[in-house]
């Protein structure tokens, strides 16, 4: 890999073991949340619409409960700190590109050495009667998937002529980005997509697997 290497890493279900948005919904059980998850996964509604509607089911009077639950129930996938250390040693740029929400993404990542301007996620507003999700990184004019937090718009800022672009992810929020990059590290349903489309991918269980594979790719 002669170009500079840059990694775009998903948060929910990738850096964390569980999908935190789904975990929050399962815990608080607002009526109708499960149909919304199904509709997002089947692509009958967009990610932005689904996530926005899910959180709009939760009253802001429960803010502290929601925030505490989201932060305290996160489990980090093994090897994450080691991957960050490896990237630092190798001069690899590392960005978190998360469809998650600021009130749990930033606190969970605060114990790792990731600059805040290298973390992209959705915002939140607790000033009304119900939680409102904000979309500071919505799709640009080249993406029409209504992603909410548009990973492809971020990836396109880094030219493939200058960068070897790597995506690490697991789910529906990573599909479009996976089609753009040079190399994908995939878990869960993202593996099926990469296989179906013939993308250049490696399956992984934890971040130690990714470090090993990056070491192998280094010599190529």
UniProtKB/TrEMBL annotation:
Molecular function, one GO term: 2-hydroxy-3-keto-5-methylthiopentenyl-1-phosphate phosphatase activity
Is the Amino-acid biosynthesis keyword given for this protein? yes
So what EC number does this one have?
A: 3.1.3.87
**Record keyword Hydrolase present:** yes
Catalysed conversion reaction: 2-hydroxy-5-methylsulfanyl-3-oxopent-1-enyl phosphate + H2O = 1,2-dihydroxy-5-(methylsulfanyl)pent-1-en-3-one + phosphate
Q: What class of enzyme is it?
A: hydrolase
Q: Which UniProt keywords apply?
A: Amino-acid biosynthesis, Hydrolase, Methionine biosynthesis
Q: Which domain of life is it from?
A: Bacteria
Q: Which InterPro entries match?
A: HAD-like_hydrolase_phosphatase, HAD-like_sf, HAD-SF_hydro_IB_MtnX, HAD_hydro_PyrdxlP_Pase-like, HAD_sf
Q: Known CDD domains for this protein? A: HAD_Pase
Q: In which pathway does it act?
A: Amino-acid biosynthesis; L-methionine biosynthesis via salvage pathway; L-methionine from S-methyl-5-thio-alpha-D-ribose 1-phosphate: step 4/6
Family recorded in the similarity comment: Belongs to the HAD-like hydrolase superfamily. MtnX family.
Q: What does this protein do?
A: Dephosphorylates 2-hydroxy-3-keto-5-methylthiopentenyl-1-phosphate (HK-MTPenyl-1-P) yielding 1,2-dihydroxy-3-keto-5-methylthiopentene (DHK-MTPene).
Protein name, per record: 2-hydroxy-3-keto-5-methylthiopentenyl-1-phosphate phosphatase
Encoding gene per record:
mtnX
């Amino acid at each position: 890999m002669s170009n500079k290497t840059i990694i775009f890493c998903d948060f929910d279900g990738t850096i964390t073991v569980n999908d935190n948005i789904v975990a929050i919904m399962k815990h608080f059980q607002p009526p109708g949340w499960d149909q919304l998850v199904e509709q997002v996964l089947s692509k009958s509604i967009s990610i932005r619409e689904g996530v926005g509607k899910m959180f709009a089911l939760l009253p802001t009077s429960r803010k502290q409960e929601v925030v505490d639950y989201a932060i305290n129930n996160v489990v980090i996938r093994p090897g994450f700190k080691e991957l960050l250390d490896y990237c630092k040693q190798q001069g690899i740029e590392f960005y978190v590109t998360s469809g998650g929400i600021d009130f749990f993404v930033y606190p969970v990542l605060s114990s790792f050495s990731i600059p805040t301007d290298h973390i992209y996620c959705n915002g939140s507003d607790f000033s009304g009667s119900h939680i409102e999700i904000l979309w500071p990184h919505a799709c640009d004019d080249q993406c029409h998937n209504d992603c909410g937090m548009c990973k492809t718009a971020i990836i396109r800022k880094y030219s493939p002529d200058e960068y070897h672009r790597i995506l690490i992810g697991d789910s529906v929020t990573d599909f479009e980005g996976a089609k753009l990059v040079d190399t994908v590290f995939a878990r869960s349903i993202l593996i099926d997509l990469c296989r179906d489309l013939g993308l250049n991918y490696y399956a992984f269980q934890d971040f130690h697997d990714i470090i090993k594979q990056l070491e192998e790719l280094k010599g190529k």
